[in-house]
Structure formats: structure tokens, C-alpha cells
Amino acid sequence: MDYTVTETDLAGSLKRLKLQMPENLSFLPENIEEADKIGDFIYPDTLTELKKTLRLQQVPVPTLEDTKPQLLGRKSADLFLPSLFIGVGTILSNPNVVSVALNIVSSYVYDFFKGNPGRKTVAIDIFVEQQGDKTVKKITYKGGPEGIKDLANVIKQLEK
Amino acid sequence: MIGYSVNPGPLMDDFNQRAEIAQRKAFMSIGQGIQEEEILSINRYVSELLELKSDFVSNKMEPEANLVYCIVGSIRAIAFELQMMVFIKKDQMAAAWTNLVRAQTILGPVIRNYPLDNTQGIEGYLQRLLDHERLLFPPMQFFSAGYIIKKAMCSICSSDPDDCDHLKGKLYMGELCCRIIAEADLLEGSSVSNPASKLCRVLAIQTGGKTIDPMTLKETEMISTKDSEPS
């Protein structure tokens, strides 16, 4: 599986933007670490369909801000997914929600690439809040569609 | 086949027969006139199918309307493949490429939404079209754009896609749900090898004081946007 895990100062980025750390499973803008203000937030345009797909399957996942998200379209055959945040609260209140959400994301990816000829690459960042010190680690995945499901195991290992 | 009000068997049998006849003519050695006649025959068949779909839509028969969408897409892909061959014979390579890309592209939603169990036949056909791409055309360089979407609409209900339940790429009453981007701010353009659209390709390169079409290696005129810029 093609992924890396890095430390990230998400708390610092949110503090700078005067935002609270989300309690539930949330979508984060792809420029959360660089944005100067909330109005600069950008999400990949796949946010609309993925959010809808999750909501229609009773897994509502909000974005960080209440306003209408700014979407970035890319005319590329690669699939850029919005970043996911998994907080300690999510893990403690409903441990299954992460694997359920990843299964839905995985089905969405499978459907997206069905009938799409050529190389299939999907990119997603997942921010995982640690149970002990509440620091946040970022999983950066860029690889084939089949690797998305397996990210649940990577997340589980990070939670320990 | 759950959900059909009428048995789709005869419709599928008719499609299979017509597709088989058309595919027998989709070889480079077949006469150009025969291929052109087959394209016309497919177009007539598509008109009949669209009338049938319209009846299904009027009667709110969604599975049947969606099946007709898939049949139309599949048979039109064969027509595009035949058209590609006709254009190659006419030495019109850019038009041939456009038709090959259309054939490949139209099959994507068909495969994603195919209502019957077995998609192996269509996926095999898509592979054949990819083989055409590798055998008949040189590797090409493409372009890809990045843009901020300012205004978008759902093609099914015209709402903002954030506010409706229609999913892009799915069929609703025989129509493909698309996102119509009405307004966007262009951010960047990149040169890529794996584009969303293979129609966004390099049309001309300058080398050795000459302007060359990379698809044919023939000399061509430089395509300039300067003339079309507003003064």
C-alpha cells in the first residue's frame, strides 16, 4: 500500500483560524495547513458526491465550516478525494463508523473508476487524532483504488 | 432483472443481433462504403430506441429507460468505432482520434450503470478500443485544467449539486446525471499523460524550424489563439 504517516500541527492550524478541533468524523479542506482564513478553504470537487453518498447511507460527514465550500475541479483521470478527520470522540463513541465510512468511500472509488480506461490512481489524506496526547497524525495515501479499504488497519494501528 | 415491468429479453436480443452485425464490419479491411452504410443503419436504430425510451419515460418505467440508455450508448460506441475507421481511410486522423475517444468515453457510464449481471462483453469491447488506441495512434501528450467552481447545476433537476440527492454518473429515468459547471475561475493548466479527456491533446509542436502535428508527423500550421483574442 502506498502511504506515508507524518506528524501534523492541525491544532495549531485550527487555532490560527479560530476554529475548534472537530469532535466527529469531518471533511477538512485540502489547504487547511496553509490557509490564512476560512474563506480561503478549498476542497476537491469530489466532496459534493462523496458527502452525498455518505449522507444517503446514513453516515453524515460535515465540513469544517458552515458556509458553502469552495470546490477545486481537476480535469485529471486521477481521483482526488477530500481529506477526512477522525477525532478521538468518533473512535470512542462509535468505533465502527470509521470502517463503515471507509467502506462507503471504497465503493465510491470503485464506482468512479468502473468503465474508466487507463491508470487508476486515488489520493486522500486522513487526519487521525491520537487518544493519549491528542496530537494528530496525517496518513497520505496515493495509489490504487484497492488500497482504500486497507487504510482502516493503518488507522487502527495509529489509534493504539 | 428485478424491477422491469416488461421483459427486457426481446430488446436485448434485438440489440445483440444488431451489435453483432455492426461489429462484423468494424475491421480496417472492410469497405469504406459498407462501414458508412452501417453507421447510417445504427443511427436509424438509435432514433427508434430514443422513441422507445421516451415512451418508457412517459410511463415512468425507469429500469427500462435506463436499459435503453445503456443499449444506445453501446451501439453508438460501435458507430464511433466505424466512423474512426472511415476517417483513417480518408486520412483525417484528428477526426479519427475524436471518434475513438468518443467511443471509449460513451462506454464508461454504460459499464457503470449496466442493469444486467454480465458486463464482461462491454468491458471486453472497451479493451478492444484501448487496443486500437495503442496500435493505431502514437503515444500523445495531453492537457489538464485546474479551476475553482463558482456556479454548478445538476443536469437532472437544475439545482445546485450540493442541494440535491442525484449522484453524478448515475442514471435517472434514462438520463445520465452530470454536473454542469456554469461558471469557473481557471487556476492552472498542466501537461499530463493521464488526462480526464483525451480530446485535450497537443495539436502541434515546433521542432527544427517546422511546425509538426505529433499525431501524423506531417507539417501543419501553428495554431494560435492570438487571432481569436478580443482587441
Interface with most residues: A-B, 27 and 35 residues
Percent of sequence in beta strands of chain B: 15-25%
The helix-strand sequence of chain A is: EHEEHEEEHHEEH
What order do the SSEs of chain B take from the amino end to the carboxyl end, as H and E? HHHHHEEEEEE
Residue fraction in strands of chain A: 15-25%
Poorly predicted tracts of residues of chain B: 227-231
- What's the average pLDDT of chain A? 91
Number of helices of chain B: 5
Tell me the major beta sheet of chain A: 6 strands, mixed
Number of domains of chain B: 2
Helix percentage range of chain A: 25-40%
**Poorly predicted sequence stretches spanning 5 or more consecutive residues of chain A:** none
- Tell the overall outline of chain B: flat
Across the major sheet of chain B, the strand order is: 1-4
What Rg of chain B, in angstroms, do the CA atoms define? 20 Å
Rg of chain A, alpha carbons: 15 Å
Describe the structure.
Chain A has 160 residues and is an alpha/beta fold. Chain A has one domain (3-159). In chain A, the strands form 2 sheets. In chain A, strands 1, 2, 5, 6, 7 and 8 form a 6-stranded mixed β-sheet that branches. A two-stranded parallel sheet of chain A has the order 3-4. Chain A is globular. In chain A, helix 4 runs antiparallel to helix 5 (147-159). In chain A, strand 7 (122-129) and strand 8 form a beta hairpin. Helix content of chain A is 34%, strand content 23%. Chain A is built from 5 helices and 8 strands. With 231 residues, chain B is α+β, with helices and mostly antiparallel strands. Chain B folds into 2 domains: 9-136; 142-212, no CATH class. Chain B is built from 5 helices and 6 strands. Chain B has helices at residues 9-24, 32-58, 62-89, 93-113, 120-136, and strands spanning 142-154, 171-172, 175-176, 179-192, 205-207, 210-212. In chain B, the strands form 3 sheets. In chain B, strands 1-4 form a two-stranded antiparallel sheet. In chain B, strands 2-3 form a two-stranded antiparallel sheet. A two-stranded antiparallel sheet of chain B has the order 5-6. In chain B, helix 1 (9-24) runs parallel beside helix 3 (62-89) and helix 2 (32-58) runs antiparallel to helix 3 (62-89). Chain B is flat. Chain B starts with 8 loop residues before the first helix and ends in a 19-residue tail after the last strand. Mean pLDDT of chain B is 92; it is low at 227-231. The interface between A and B is medium-sized, with 27 and 35 residues.
